[in-house]
Amino acid sequence: MTRILDPTVERGLLGELEPVVAANIDRHLSVARDWNPHDYVPWSEGRNFAFLGGEDWAPEQSRLTPVAKAAMIVNLLTEDNLPSYHRVIATAFGRDAAWRTWLDRWTAEENRHAVAMRDYLTVTRGVDPVDLERRRMRLMSAGIEDGPQGLLENLAYVSFQELATRVSHRNAGRETGCPIGDQLMARIAADENLHMVFYRNLVEAALELAPEAMMCAIRDVVLSFEMPGAGQPDFLRYSAIIANAGIYDLRLHHDAVIMPVLRYWKVFDRTDLAPAAEQAREQLAEFLREVDVAAERFVTRRAERNARRERSRS
Ligand SMILES: [Fe+2]
Ligand SMILES: [Fe+2]
After folding, report:
1. Ligand 1 centroid from CA 274, angstroms
2. What local confidence, expressed as pLDDT, does residue 27 receive?
3. Which of 4, 84, 156, 242 gets the most CB atoms within 10 Å of its CB?
């Protein structure tokens, strides 16, 4: 993805957006609820592993279905990779004034997600902790592939990505079949929603300040969107399992992530766009029509597969 604005113009825009960042930090702090990871972990189920004289993990100890395991592993590793996201965002947003305050606060909140999910999975023996640790080491040692480069591209990306993780966490929680796991993931999903609101509001302001560049950035991000977990070991296999279970699939991506945010920005309602922005919007609309068709096809095929499976069982 080529960077839309040159760094000098970006620096000016960072300054212009700074009061919006400050106002949205205040807004965020007034609605964010403090919570403690340890509250969402059934510690009474915990016991030592072999290293301390107990028993190591074995598959039969887990109450999670293979689908729930895949979803929890992908979602936890996505949270684990926080240092890479911090680096990318710090590079794009800079570390000045309110931008820095936000980045540090956001990082602290995100870190809580991995702490809580790992404690929950370890204590309940939901997934193999050795395998999980190996995956974490591989992922974090590799960092992340180059994602969006510039300020506007990153703002657009995180707006969608926070909402995508909200949907994915919420549905993964339900899939655990465990009231505590469900509650934990709902709590994390509520945080992700507030993060989405923060970034979405910044894009809204940027659409006023630099409509053409912002519209082009939105197009570029939507057309090349990948989940933040895309670099994880076995991501393709796991994301297929997650999509087949309806935890995160193309239908949800289109209907529950991309479209609501675009509607909030009134992307398709604006009548004041310059030619380059108009062209970006048309490309975006065309792409989304294709996504919609592909999502329909996916859902139909999934229903047919499930019906066949049901028939073969009965
Ligand atoms: Fe998170
Ligand atoms: Fe988040």
Report:
1. 36
2. 98
3. 156
